[in-house]
Amino acid sequence: MPGFRELLREHGLNEVYKVTESLAGRYLVFMRVTGDKWVLCVSNGCDVWKTELNKEELEAERDVADFKSLEEYLTRFSQSFQRGEMTVSCMGKKATLEVGLGISSLSLDLYEASAAERKEEIQTLLFFLASTAHSLEIELKKSKDMVEGLQHQIGKASNSNTAFVDLDKKRGSQTKAKPKQPGMSVINPSSKKRKAAQGVVFD
Predict the structure, then answer these.
(1) Mean pLDDT, residues 109-132
(2) For residue 105, what are the CA distances in angstroms to 61, 77, 85?
(3) Which residue ranges run through the membrane (predicted)?
(4) Distance from chain centroid for Cα 52
(5) Is 108 within 8 Å of 127 (Cβ atoms)?
(6) Alpha-carbon gap, residue 32 to 118, rounded angstroms
(7) Three-state SS string across the chain, please?
(8) Within a domain: residue 136?
(9) Of 30, 56, 114, 121, which alpha carbon lies 20 to 30 A from 47's?
(10) Looking at residues 127-142, what average pLDDT do you find?
(11) How many whole angstroms separate alpha carbon 57 and alpha carbon 107?
């Protein structure tokens, strides 16, 4: 049985983010695992709303949502999050994040972060995005080098095949039998055949 941290990571709910459009504007939803808590944040670029849930608190959310197990709850949450099925509504110092569609959506309340918390979360997100972009650049370069290497190999193979075809054509033209001219000897092509002796004709 995986621990709480491992369970969240297995469901892709650690160090992930996604932008969602709501009536009040665009929001960035991001989450991470720190210690024994699952940290969820919502930001409009200026303000940050945040909640931290340990396993017992998340089990309480699962019970309210009427799921039999935490695994089922996290699976539903993860699938809806990855599809971008989210809405954010803000009222005062509270923001409500709904993940999923219709009556089956999962709802979590987040609260306005303090100035120190806001600075910490935005800083954490900034460095995470920079690290992700750097990793993508490295992967892109590896893929580009691999494609260029394959193209080079294909080019060499194509040139080699062309050379073989040209060589075969050359050999074929050299070994092709020359047409025999009428009256020429097959054994000695440079001399004409002698006519067979017909004897002396007497009148």
Answers:
(1) 90
(2) 12, 9, 9
(3) none
(4) 31
(5) no
(6) 15
(7) CCCHHHHHHHCCCCCEEEEEEECCEEEEEEEEEECCEEEEEEECCCCEEEEEECHHHHHHHHHHCCCCCHHHHHHHHHHHHHCCCEEEEEECCEEEEEECCHHHCEEEEEEECCHHHHHHHHHHHHHHHHHHHHHHHHHHHHHHHHHHHHHHHHHHHHHHHHHHHHHHHHHHHHHCCCCCCCCECCCCCCCECCCCCCCCCCC
(8) no
(9) 56
(10) 83
(11) 14
> pTM for the whole thing?
0.67
**CB of 73 within 8 A of CB of 67?**
yes
Provide the residue range defining the domain that includes 45.
4-121
Mean pLDDT for the stretch of residues 45-66 = 96
Q: Phi and psi dihedrals of 94, rounded to 5? A: -120, 140
The C-alpha atoms of residue 200 and residue 84 are separated, in whole angstroms, by 113
What CATH number is associated with residue 26? 2.170.210.10
pLDDT band at 167 (very low <50, low <70, confident <90, very high): low
Has residue 17 been placed in a domain? yes
Q: Which tokens go with 95?
A: 């923001």
Neighbours of 148 (CB within 10 A): 10
Give mean pLDDT, residues 156-161.
Answer: 69
Tally of domains in the chain:
1
Task: Tell me, yes or no, whether 133 lies in a domain.
Answer: no
- Which tops the pLDDT comparison, 182 or 104? 104
Average pLDDT over residues 86-96: 93
